[in-house]
Amino acid sequence: MQATASIWLDEPYTPRPPLEGRLSSEICIVGAGIAGLSAAWRMLELGVRPVVLDALTVAGGATGRNGGFFMAGVAPRYDEACRLWGPEVAARRYRATLDSQLDLLAFAGEVCARD
């Protein structure tokens, strides 16, 4: 099997330089994958300017290879979640993941429309 580049890296990419010196921020998010960037996006919506740090490439880990955890539902299967938390809580948590997916897809569409 031949290795392929992730969709995030299918065009030339110039890495950002490493952080030098000191930096002050209310929020520091470590990891620039889908979870870290989603958290940063939410912080911006709340009026907080976060700093996002990553040791390597933005979306270069699991996010860039397999979508990270862009899936519906929580760790336990839905039937197990119903047993653990009850059907109402399980359904609410499942719906929250679907809403988050829609938010991310809308954001991705906005970004693509700008390019």
Name a few traits of the molecule.
two-stranded parallel sheet; 4 helices; 2 domains; 115 residues; 2 strands; mainly alpha
Description:
The mean pLDDT is 81. A two-stranded parallel ribbon has the order 1-2. It has helices at residues 34-45, 62-66, 78-85, 87-114; strands spanning 28-30, 51-53. With 115 residues, the chain is mainly alpha-helical. It is globular, with a radius of gyration of 17 Å. The chain is built from four helices and two strands, in the order E-H-E-H-H-H. It folds into two domains: 1-70, no CATH class; 72-115, no CATH class.
The succession of helices and strands, N to C, reads EHEHHH
Radius of gyration equals 17 Å
Mean pLDDT: 81
Shape: globular
How do the strands of the widest beta sheet line up side by side? 1-2
Count of separate structural domains: 2
In the predicted model, the low-confidence regions spanning at least 5 consecutive residues are none
How much helix, percentage-wise, in residues?
Answer: 40-55%
The number of helices is 4
Task: Look at the helices and sheets and give the structural class.
Answer: mainly alpha
| Number of strand segments | 2
